[in-house]
TrEMBL record:
This is tRNA (uracil-O(2)-)-methyltransferase. It is found in: Cytoplasm. The keyword Nucleus does not apply. It comes from Sinanodonta woodiana. One of its GO terms (molecular function) is zinc ion binding. Keywords: Cytoplasm, Metal-binding, Methyltransferase, S-adenosyl-L-methionine, Transferase, tRNA processing, Zinc, Zinc-finger.
Length: 651
């Protein structure tokens, strides 16, 4: 019945709707397709990802009708992709594939067919829907056929934003361009079809063209590799409603609640599913216990404890929000020094979430606590065992070098270290999990000797001047009778947090840096000029890399800024009314626009009305063309006559 319907009603003719010029190879095109197949959520933020159900390779066997037969069989058979006898071709089936690694490795006579399920973020509103994808290597054409689409009580266009209507679409590669075609068959309303085509043209085609031109694309899935994506999404949405919404409202800290609350919700989701997986594999009856070392605001501890996992958090400094948690959340204010006195033999997991100087010690603490103790670390600020970590490898970044070091520590401690990437609002998203050992309990003494030697060597080489480290005294050894401390140079963070946001930098230094950067941005290459509504010409300048900005300043000034968090970048961002810093470049804040700030930045500027005209307009006083806005439209004061007193800030 379905086959007859297809023959009579489905047209396999496609019409060209857009074409974009590219300087890309066929391999670049296929790599770009892999990103869209494996990671659709990077374009469509309403998706959490995708899941492959089938993956087969068909050889056309000199049959021009193979492609058409495949299409009809795929769309008429709801449960599977057709076998060789159904489409007159040879078939190579690949079971258990979670993602497409490289489409360009297949032969020119191959047709790759797969079924992909698209997973929506909002599972309470939308259901999973499927696509049949057919990639014809000889034609360099890929076609996406919608298999099913269900959305509950909502307009589809409001939710998923991509395939709002049931249309098939196709991309075709040529040596100088990529074409977008859509099927002539229409199963949906014209308005929905129009929205779909607009999204395909403006979003998807544009991204594919850009990716096709890039080299060394990371085409495979990089985040949440150790978990089931669909389970993660369901659990995250549940915890988000259960904890996130309320804590964003009542957040008493000065930090951004949108970032810190939902980051901890995501980390809690990850750990809960990781532990659920471990209970299944190891047949554990009880929920795992934990200690969060350097727990900060304590929200992660609160969520894990509320979900039934016994444990506690410890940090050197108490936070205001600690008082808002219930008695089930145990948080201790104490200093942690790696030693025989800081072992946790009665706990299953040690957690290091942005634990800074404790990060390299956590695998050591876990290894020495008990043979069954596991760990989770999310590295951030780079620390060695006894000092700041320094990268001696010029070909990789400081962050990647530090990640490799943290992995090495775990492996040296005897763990099988697994690397994953979290989905959190942070640039430091890579985590490490040590849940299995690489040695038997009988080898503990041998491995402990290797641990001790490794730590001793790192304490020697990692310290800037090596003074204070006695190479003859192994103070880190757990069997050392003279001292229980494992490194005499370890420095825990200070209880009173230093303010390092350039406040201590002198005003004259700030003014000097601002003037130098402003002059360079205003007069750099590719600077632009705009005609204002009142007829004036206003020089908008261009944009320059932060590295170039640093080269404009002398060593003394750079030395002052280096001791501050973020250094030069922090100083420039503190002057956001003058500069815009993004993607490693600096440009002038463009007040010719109605809203010169990003939506996120504008949302953080609460009660802007009460600060109207309380700060002098920098452009009015310093830009050679003055302020691009008239006095009536500028929220800053044009001259002292307009200046108002700032409202009193009460504690």
């Amino acid at each position: 019945m379905a086959e007859e319907y297809l023959k009579e009603n489905i047209s396999f003719e496609f019409s060209l709707v857009d074409s974009k010029n590219v300087k890309a190879s066929a391999n670049g095109f296929s790599d770009a397709l892999c990103i869209w197949i494996n990671k659709p959520h990077v374009i469509n933020r309403r998706l959490c990802g995708s899941r492959l159900k089938y993956f087969k390779i068909y050889n056309r066997s000199n049959s021009d009708t193979t492609h058409l037969k495949l299409i009809r069989q795929c769309l008429s058979t709801q449960s599977r992709i057709p076998d060789s006898e159904e489409c007159d071709c040879t078939v190579s089936q690949h079971d258990g594939i979670n993602e497409v690694e490289c489409l360009s490795e297949y032969g020119s006579d191959d047709i790759i067919v797969l079924e992909r399920e698209m997973l929506p973020k909002k599972t309470d509103r939308c259901k999973v829907y499927s696509e049949i994808i057919i990639y014809d290597r000889s034609e360099e054409t890929i076609t996406f056929y919608p298999k099913s689409f269900v959305c509950q009580n909502h307009h589809i266009g409001e939710e998923l934003g991509t395939l709002e209507s049931d249309i098939a679409y196709q991309f075709m590669y040529h040596t100088d361009r990529i074409d977008l075609r859509v099927s002539n068959t229409n199963f949906s309303e014209d308005s929905k079809r129009s929205l779909s085509i607009t999204w395909l043209k403006d979003k998807l085609l544009t991204k594919l063209c850009r990716w096709s031109e890039e080299e060394n694309l990371k085409t495979t899935l990089s985040s949440l590799r150790l978990l089931n994506l669909e389970e993660y999404n369901i659990q995250y949405n549940d915890l988000k409603q259960k904890y996130g919404v309320n804590f964003v409202k009542i957040w008493p800290e000065k930090t951004d609640p949108q970032k810190f609350v939902y980051e901890d919700v995501a980390i809690a989701t990850y750990l809960l599913l990781l532990w659920k997986q471990e209970r299944t594999v190891k047949n554990l009856k009880e929920k795992q216990s934990f200690v969060d070392l350097g727990c900060g605001n304590g929200l992660l501890v609160h969520i894990l404890a509320s979900e039934g996992h016994p444990g506690y958090g410890v940090d050197i400094r108490r936070r205001k929000i600690w008082d808002l948690y219930g008695p089930e959340t145990v948080l201790k204010e104490a200093s942690i020094t790696p030693s025989a006195d800081c072992l946790y033999p009665d706990y299953d997991w040690l957690i290091g979430n942005h634990s800074d100087e404790l990060t390299p010690w956590i695998p050591v603490l876990a290894a020495r606590s008990s043979y069954t103790c596991c760990y989770f670390v999310l590295p951030c600020c780079p620390y060695n065992f006894a000092s700041k970590f320094t990268n001696n490898q010029k070909d990789i970044s400081q962050y990647r070098s530090y990640l490799d070091y943290v992995r090495l520590v775990g492996e040296t401690c005897g763990f099988i270290v697994e690397e994953d990437m979290l989905r959190i609002p942070s640039t430091k998203r890579v985590c490490f999990v040590g849940r299995n050992r690489s040695y038997s309990p009988a080898e503990e003494t041998i491995i402990e000797g290797e641990r001790s030697a490794f730590i001793q060597q790192r304490c020697l080489t990692g310290h800037k001047d090596d003074k204070g480290v006695n190479s003859k005294k192994r103070t880190h050894s757990p069997d050392d009778g003279e001292s229980k401390v494992w490194s005499s140079n370890f420095q825990p963070r200070e209880k009173v947090e230093k303010i390092r946001n350039c406040i201590t930098v002198s005003q004259s230094t700030k003014d000097h840096v601002v003037k130098i950067v402003f002059d360079r941005v205003l007069n750099c290459e590719k600077s632009s000029t705009e005609q204002l509504p009142d007829g004036r010409l206003w020089r908008r300048g261009g944009h320059i890399p932060l590295l170039e900005v640093a080269s404009l300043l002398d060593r003394e000034i750079l030395g002052q800024l280096k001791s501050e968090c973020g250094g030069l970048q922090t100083l420039l961002r503190n002057h956001s009314h003058i500069f815009q810093v993004s993607c490693g470049e600096v440009q002038l804040r463009d007040f010719t626009q109605n809203e010169p700030y990003s939506k996120r930045a504008a949302a953080r500027m609460k009660d802007r009305a009460q600060f109207y005209k309380t700060v002098p307009c920098w452009f009015y006083s310093h830009h050679p063309d003055g302020c691009p806005r008239t006095s009536e439209k500028c929220s800053f004061a044009h001259g002292n006559d307009e200046l108002r007193d700032r409202p009193f800030k009460s504690e």
